[in-house]
Design brief:
This protein is of the alpha+beta class. It contains 27 helices and 37 strands. Helix 2 packs across helix 19, helix 20 crosses helix 23 and helix 21 runs antiparallel to helix 22. It is globular and about 105 Å long. The model has no long low-confidence stretch (mean pLDDT 91). The structure holds one RNA strand of 85 nucleotides.
Length: 876
RNA sequence: GCCCCAUUGGCGGAACUGGUAGACGCGCUCGACUCAAAAUCGAGUUCCGAAAGGAGUGCUGGUUCGAUUCCGGCAUGGGGCACCA
């Protein structure tokens, strides 16, 4: 009777070869069945996959296999997000060419993914650094340029004055360059931009149609796009104040109702007026420089202490010309948003209030809560930002905030200064155009040529691709394309004169903004084959980390619209269903500080617990290591766990099953191996139960029992089948796992009986039916074990090509239900009663219960609440 | 700083649309098998309490017959903030 333990090392390889031999996962674009496109966000080829990848791809694979079993023609491709900074860093640190480094990493990671047994169509694989891919991206860029979706403008970068290099925000640590340690400056460069703001309103409105996206992602995008309705208001500069060439300052405000609470104007350091004043004033120039040094990131800007300086310029209040207000240059005002100038109403905005207190500016409350008292309402250290009733606001007093908004808007629209209205209604978006220029080598070259006579000349499509030169060096700082001896020299396609290539490459977000479309016909000479793209798109189920909730997804949505404008696809929204899986997070470990800080992988350290305190030491050197915060697994922080150990000891199925168990897939998990033994036990237990019963099962016909002893077996199997199918549809893998455990627990005794030859024919048939269902249910999660079990019980063909079984409705229905009985909201008893019993029957049955009688003590209950099919609550 | 999310036993978590809190797994305890161990099987396992019973879903206040679930405030942790991908 004893069978051998399941050996994943042997079985997994065998079945992977079998699938490959049969081309099971190769997708035919002309297959007539209904399509289903499932896609996981493709990985950056950092070198090794980590548990976060395993989790992501295991989920996608369950969906792919499940949908295949449900009869769909499934597209499930894989590729590589292969351009980006780490390859250049490796080149600088180790002298490897970025291409060599990247392709080696891809080979290593592909091997790891292969071991996982994913049902991917590898024939469609590509890397974004393949010339064949980025050539089509250049084609798209030229099309967008032609459609007016691309332009150039001045924009700021982090400049390292020692390394002569543009730094990413990530590379700026406490205002200094990560390698040189030099204070980072901001430099203005002319850079390329995509006009994503052309689509602001549409990108916002269409969020409502994405009903298969998580609400939180839609909300984040809505806030990011940041539509606001407000007023631009012109403030005249008062005579007799600081001299300036300007006559007025235009301010954007969403709160014109609070105009009578204004106590200052604040302008950005890059505002034309600030620049003008700085030219002749050292203090103001120094302050503006300081603001610019703060870094390009919004987070850095907003966490910095709020500061400003008085320019000496005074402006006239738009509703009272005799009222003059000071104009400050302030570090919290952004030139990119609105008009680069605001009016500060300290009582209605916390930031303005802090600023006013700091510089001793008046604070006049102008809005109070509806039920407030105007005589006593004051604002001290907390601004009142809500809606309410206007006070201290002259002709607005007593109005609601909305009414006041309208009155001010109507008044100022009619007031003319120099024949122009003083104010105009304006819809404003927080969303900015997408800067795609990168001063780096390892990216897609922007296919443009600069000619002294002809200006900017697009590279003709017939001259594509603009290939990256291979012979580059990274021993010197700066962009290798810039200092390449020949690459940038080229004849102008227009006039033939000597000209130079654009040396900026594209942001890697561009690469990932259309790869999903390329997968539909990766062999096509044009960027897409519109027929294939329109057949497969939108992606039915897109799965990836929540960290991409805004940028990647928004850029892809824009790109799809731009591609539509250029005729490459016929749709707006690329992703119909989105699932944001939680991240696999882990503690970080490091030694050294600041720019010297060096990250250490978990594999290199040991955790000791001394007096209840956790301490980390380096295994090799025994030196103490700093335990840092818990963060998403990333190559840069090295807090990654390689799945090879787990797959090596337990097999891919156990690893897949384990990462799908327990945690809800959209929740972050702190990585821990505790519990992997349980998953492995389940694999072995399932194999043992099935293989021991297999000789008997092979002979039997699968037939659910409708009555008798075996009924329970069939009910358990069919109820689980219904529930697991629903779980897979919702991507609730952890729940499916729990149900499978329950079913196997329930089948253990009958299968042992069958194996021992002690079961009657009806039981053997019901057991066979249950086992067939069981194997099909765990097949999407543990495909190798499923094939092995399937063959063992004499199944025909491959489970990977099999159809999802259907459940028997009679077996799923419940005739009797057990109602919990509460007394005053606390459960005191159970009542088992026919499912269709009516309210009165339930009530009298409840009153007859001993527990209820005891509490009632002969009296009548105050109230009995019967929630059909759910619960009874007796109120005493 | 701003936007979004999470918080339930020793641990991961379950609880459908407001209706039995703790399914399932891990760990632990006890038992069976064994010369012994591993593997396996069985029983128990929120906390307090001998028990009866009581308390309990980060904290706090509210709505409700009834709140892990809805609303207000707070705390802690995580993600994003436009050049990490």
């Amino acid at each position: 009777m004893a069978t051998e333990r399941y050996n994943p090392r042997d079985a997994e390889q065998r079945w992977q070869q079998e699938w490959e031999k049969n081309n099971v996962y190769k997708t035919d674009n002309d297959d007539p069945r209904e399509k289903y496109y499932v896609l996981e966000m493709f990985p950056y080829p950092s070198g090794r996959i980590h548990m976060g990848h395993v989790r992501n791809y295991a989920m996608g694979d369950v969906v792919a296999r499940f949908k295949r079993a449900r009869g769909y023609n499934v597209l499930h491709p894989m590729g590589w997000d292969a351009f980006g900074m780490p390859a250049e860093n490796a080149a600088m640190e180790r002298g490897v060419h970025p291409a060599a480094w990247t392709y080696q990493n891809i080979a290593a990671m592909k091997a790891q993914l292969k071991v996982m047994g994913l049902s991917l169509d590898w024939s469609r694989e590509f890397a974004t650094c393949d010339v064949e891919y980025y050539q089509r991206q250049q084609h798209l860029f030229l099309d967008f340029l032609e459609k007016g979706l691309v332009y150039r403008k001045q924009s700021k970068v982090n400049w390292d004055p020692v390394d002569h290099t543009v730094l990413a925000n990530e590379q700026v640590i406490d205002g200094r360059g990560w390698r040189s340690g030099a204070l980072v400056e901001q430099r203005e460069l002319t850079q390329w931009f995509f006009r994503i703001t052309d689509f602001s309103q549409d990108l916002l409105d269409s969020l409502d149609t994405l009903d298969q996206w998580p609400e939180k992602v839609r909300l984040m995008q809505r806030n990011w796009i940041g539509r606001s309705e407000g007023l631009t208001v012109r403030w005249e500069i008062a005579e007799g104040s600081q001299k300036t060439a300007e006559r007025e300052i235009t301010v954007y405000t969403t709160r014109p109702d609070t105009l009578f609470g204004a106590s200052f104007l604040a302008i950005a350091a890059d505002h034309p007026l600030a620049r003008e004043l700085s030219a002749g004033n050292e203090t103001s120039a120094a302050f503006c420089d300081e603001c610019r040094r703060a870094g390009t990131s919004l987070a850095a800007l907003e966490t910095a202490e709020k500061k400003g300086i008085d320019t000496g310029v005074r402006v006239k209040h738009p509703l009272d010309a005799s009222w003059e207000l000071p104009v400050y240059i302030a570090n919290f005002v952004l030139m990119d948003y609105g008009t680069g100038a605001i009016f500060g109403c300290p009582s209605g905005d916390q930031r303005d209030l802090d600023f006013a207190r700091k510089y001793d500016l008046p604070v006049v409350p102008v809005v109070m809560p509806k039920d407030g008292d105007a005589a006593t309402f004051t604002v001290e250290n907390e601004a009142y930002i809500g809606d309410g009733v206007m006070i201290n606001s002259r002709f607005l007093d007593g109005l609601s905030t909305e009414e006041a908004f309208e009155r001010v808007a109507a008044t100022l629209e009619k007031t003319l200064i120099g024949n122009q209205p003083q104010a105009e209604r304006k819809v404003n978006f927080r969303l900015r155009d997408w800067g795609i220029s990168r001063q780096r080598y390892w990216g897609c070259p922007i296919p443009v040529i600069h000619c002294e006579d002809c200006g900017i000349v697009p590279v003709p499509k017939k001259d594509l691709p603009v290939k990256l030169p291979d012979d580059v060096t990274f021993d010197k700082p700066g962009n290798p394309l810039d200092r390449h001896p020949t690459w940038r020299h080229v004849a102008c396609p227009h006039c033939g004169k000597d000209a130079r290539r654009e040396t900026d490459t594209m942001d890697t977000f561009v690469d990932s903004s259309w790869y999903f479309a390329r997968f539909t016909a990766p062999w096509e000479d044009n960027p897409t084959d519109p027929k294939a793209a329109n057949h497969w798109l939108p992606v039915d189920q897109y799965i990836g980390g929540i960290e991409h909730a805004i940028l990647h997804l928004l850029y892809s949505r824009f790109f799809t619209r731009a591609m539509k404008a250029a005729g490459h696809v016929a749709l707006d929204e690329p992703f119909k269903g989105l699932f944001t899986q939680g991240m696999v997070v882990h503690e970080t470990y490091s030694r050294g500080e600041g720019a010297q800080r060096e990250w250490i992988t978990p594999a290199e350290i040991r955790i000791d617990e001394i007096d209840g305190k956790r301490r980390a030491v380096h295994i090799e050197t025994e030196e103490p290591i700093t335990i840092g915060s818990i963060e998403k697994m990333s190559k840069s922080k090295k807090n990654v766990v390689d799945p090879d150990d787990i797959i090596g000891s337990y097999g891919a199925d156990t690893a897949r099953f384990f990462v799908l168990s327990d945690s809800p897939p959209d929740r972050d998990v702190i990585w821990s191996e505790a519990g992997v033994e349980g998953s492995h036990r389940f694999v072995q237990r399932t194999w043992r139960l099935i293989s021991e019963a297999a000789p008997a099962l092979r002979q039997a016909e699968a037939k659910p029992a409708k009555s008798g002893n075996a009924l329970e077996i069939s009910q358990a199997a069919h109820r689980t089948l219904k529930a697991v199918g629903a779980d897979y549809e919702k991507l609730a893998f952890n729940k499916a796992v729990a149900r499978l455990y329950e079913l196997v627990n329930a089948l253990a005794a009958p299968l042992t009986e069958v194996a021992g030859g002690k079961a009657d024919a009806a039981t053997v048939s019901a057991a066979k039916d249950a086992v067939v269902i069981l194997i099909n249910m765990f097949a999407p999660m543990m495909p190798h074990l499923a094939e092995e079990c399937w063959r063992e019980i004499g199944g025909e063909g491959l489970i990977a090509k099999g159809a999802w079984p259907s459940f028997d409705a009679d077996l799923v229905a419940e005739n009797e239900i057990t109602l919990p009985v509460q007394i005053n909201g606390k459960k005191r008893a159970d009542l088992t009663i026919a499912r269709d019993a009516d309210q009165t029957a339930v009530q009298s049955a409840v009153l007859a219960l001993e527990a209820v009688q005891a509490v009632l003590n002969g009296q009548n209950p105050k109230k009995i609440i019967v929630v059909p099919q759910r619960i009874v609550n007796v109120v005493v």
